[in-house]
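Ticket #4471: structure output looks truncated?

Reporter: J.K.
Steps to reproduce: submitted the chain below (180 residues) through the standard prediction queue, then opened the result file.
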Amino acid sequence: MTPAAVASPGRLAGADAAPWKRPEVWGTVLLVVCDQLSKLLVLQRIGLHETVTVIPGLLNLTYVRNTGAAFGMLNAHDFAYKPVLVAALAILALLGILWYARKFAGDAWPARYGFVLIVGGAVGNLIDRVTLGFVVDFVDVYFGTWHFWAFNVADAAISIGAILFAADTLFSRRHVPEAV
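Returned output as attached by the reporter:
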């Protein structure tokens, strides 16, 4: 490991470390496993559109199929190549995230953990799209009669990861121009 990698407090593992020795890889794998296990439990125990109340007035588990993109976009539209288009868009987004992280993300923990959460979530949902043709969503947060979009572990990870990435981008010192 280089001296810079050791000296950087935000650095989780050296870039030269073997992939299986990097905490980011294990974090991503753990996230994908948790996401897929939670969806498997939903598929086995909750019927389509069935609701299980967890916290009355706040949280239900409701199994829905998301055949569209994030937050149900394109759900109302059906066309022949929709599953292929949505999966291709997901792959392009994942590749864009990987490129961005490699090019711009720093060693600070918000960027590194944000990257793990976004990639793990994207892979979890991509597995659903490729194997099932839809994403399993089941977390139903609501207040009175207003319901947020149903989501899953992968969606939550992507959202939190995006916030961490944005915080790193907005508040990182490496983006501040040096005084002349």
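Triage note (M.O.): checked the attachment and the full token line is present. The longest helix spans residues 109-132.
Status: closed, working as intended.
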